[in-house]
């Protein structure tokens, strides 16, 4: 048996073979990927000491009782902006949890790669299928050896004006199947200021971090259907947030469109050293039927339609408002 099987190959295994397959991956993970030494030092301390000076929003943590007492689980989170990884390390640290996040490094600069590596992140290049598979094993190994894991289950940031979440990848369910540990769905809800902002640091007033009920992966069952269960849990939690906050994401009026366009520009180009390449990131979005996946809207010929607002166009919108 090869180390990595496709989802189709896994589904063609007998129940006994499925259990044997995931147990073999667990043994490989445990043996090869132990925790690095001294990871809970420089990187985490730097983020926890410095990041609070840059973020202009507070945390509101809900559902902490859903986390296992030993902290051993995989946190499956939505993904919406450049703050997410820093928020995960900082906010989870406030409640006594050191998480090992799974982080794509193909869009990071040298500084952020080294920073995240020094706080026990599992780094991988999304352009390499093999790196993605090994990253799943490494994350599983970290968890089996005593570290809580965290994954941003969407393939990239969700910048859509209406969509609750993008479809999540199978990696979340695979890690749950390998480790046998529970998956905790988590929503990071950055509550945007109701008024138009012209600086990224003014965008948010609160980040609500909501922990959902534990989900266990059955090794004998289809991973796609179990991934859908995780997806539904995350979407339900986020919709509940929106209901409680009075947020309605349907059709935007002229004022709402301008706010969306400018705020999206700020998120993509002005956030904590990250630059979001819309064209490249769109390649990582999943589509169940193979159709193109919308992630952003723009103005074209006066119409608010699916498309990308360039850095030049966004800057022009901001400058028009400034003067």
Seen as an oligomer or otherwise, the chain set is: single chain
Specify the CATH architecture of the largest domain.
3-Layer(aba) Sandwich
Rg result = 20 Å
Based on Cα principal axes, name the global outline.
Answer: globular
Count of separate structural domains: 2
| Discrete helix count | 11
Low-confidence stretches: none
User: β content, as a range?
Assistant: 15-25%
Total strands: the figure is 9
* Rounded average pLDDT: 91
Helical content class: 40-55%
CATH topology of the largest domain: Glycerol-3-phosphate (1)-acyltransferase
Give a short account of the largest sheet. Answer: 7 strands, mixed
Structural class: alpha/beta
Classified by CATH, the class of the largest domain is Alpha Beta
Distance between the termini: 65 Å
CATH homologous superfamily descriptor of the largest domain: Glycerol-3-phosphate (1)-acyltransferase
Strands side by side in the biggest sheet: 1-7-6-2-5-3-4
């Amino acid at each position: 048996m090869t180390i990595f099987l496709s989802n189709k190959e896994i589904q063609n295994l007998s129940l006994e073979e499925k259990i044997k397959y995931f147990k073999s991956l667990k043994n490989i993970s445990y043996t090869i990927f132990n925790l690095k030494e001294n990871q809970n030092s420089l990187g985490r301390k730097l983020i926890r000491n410095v990041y609070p000076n840059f973020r202009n929003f507070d945390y509101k943590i809900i559902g902490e009782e859903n986390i296992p007492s030993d902290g051993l689980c995989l946190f499956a989170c939505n993904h919406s902006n450049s703050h997410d990884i820093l928020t995960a390390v900082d906010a989870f640290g406030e409640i006594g949890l050191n998480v090992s996040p799974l982080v794509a490094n193909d869009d990071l600069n040298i500084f952020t790669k080294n920073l995240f590596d020094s706080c026990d992140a599992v780094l991988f290049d999304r352009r390499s299928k093999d790196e993605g598979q090994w990253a799943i094993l490494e994350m599983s190994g970290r968890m089996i050896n005593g570290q809580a894991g965290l994954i941003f289950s969407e393939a990239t940031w969700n910048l859509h004006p209406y969509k609750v979440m993008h479809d999540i990848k199978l990696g979340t369910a695979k890690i749950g199947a390998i480790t046998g540990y529970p998956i905790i769905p988590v929503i990071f809800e950055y509550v945007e200021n109701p008024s138009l902002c012209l600086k990224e640091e003014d965008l948010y007033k609160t980040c609500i971090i909501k922990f959902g009920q534990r989900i266990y992966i059955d090794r004998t069952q289809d991973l796609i259907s179990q991934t859908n269960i995780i997806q539904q849990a995350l979407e339900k939690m986020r919709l509940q947030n929106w209901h409680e906050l009075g947020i309605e994401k349907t059709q935007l009026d002229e004022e709402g469109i301008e706010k969306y366009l400018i705020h999206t520009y700020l998120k993509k180009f002005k956030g904590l050293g990250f630059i979001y390449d819309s064209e490249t990131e769109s390649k990582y979005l999943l589509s169940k039927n193979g159709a193109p996946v919308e992630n952003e809207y723009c103005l074209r010929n006066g119409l608010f339609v699916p498309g990308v607002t360039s850095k030049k166009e966004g800057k022009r919108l901001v400058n028009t408002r400034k003067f």
